Amino acid sequence: MAELQLGNIIVDVEQKDIKHIHLSVYPPNGRVKIAAPSHLSLEMIRIYVISKLSWIKKQQKKVRNQKRDAPREYLNRESHYYKGKRYLLRIIEIDRPPRVDLKHGTIDLYVRPGSTLLQKQALLDEWYRTQLKTILPDMITQWEKTLKVKVDEFRVKKMKTKWGTCTREAGRIWINLELAKKTVDCLEYIVVHEMMHLLERRHNDKFIAYMDFYLPKWKFYKEMLNRLPVKHEDWNY
Known about the structure:
The structure is a single chain. By secondary structure, this protein is an alpha/beta fold. The protein has 6 helices and 11 strands. Helix content is about 35%, strand content about 25%. A 4-stranded mixed sheet has the order 1-2-4-3. It has a 4-stranded mixed sheet with strand order 5-6-8-7, covered by helices on one side. A 3-stranded mixed sheet has the order 9-11-10, with helices on one face. α3 (about 115-145) crosses α4 and α4 (about 185-195) packs across α6 (about 220-225). The longest helix is centred in the middle third of the chain and has 31 residues, at about 115-145.
């Protein structure tokens, strides 16, 4: 992987068989990475990055200032979230298959005695994944009718830098597992955003006009999502 330095900004450059340039700024420290088509020279990539310096600095400031959740230890009475609501975790050791129960104010984690932090995390993550896979089909179907598009497949996965992505050619959208913890409005905003890419690939004026028309409060939901604490992880890029 090549590296460009522009003042105090270091950019990791990965060239591969793609059609378009993808520029990303990663939390927690604002590391910059660019994926570029193989045929572009480093000088052409440098010129492109220079044209985006204002955007890069704005994104770096945003990710460095964003609140971060404390790392989870999966202990009794620890705070966890579902659909934007805070719940207290209850660890219940029982010699039976693990499961998760959502109660009025608690998330009850039934685990075998001696279960590790990673096992508890995996159990809760899988529960979040199941909840999203229950919520998303109806939401996607509703917006398919509204937008007159077709989502051939949706998937849920952990993503470190994006709330969602769209693979336009395959008609596939990806949703970040962390959205199970956010409000349904925030989840819906991301679903609509990614489905909108089936109408318009880029974040251009046409895309924004579509968002304004179909989801007039999208900027409010975007700002709400950006204000919420994000998962604590020490990422290295």
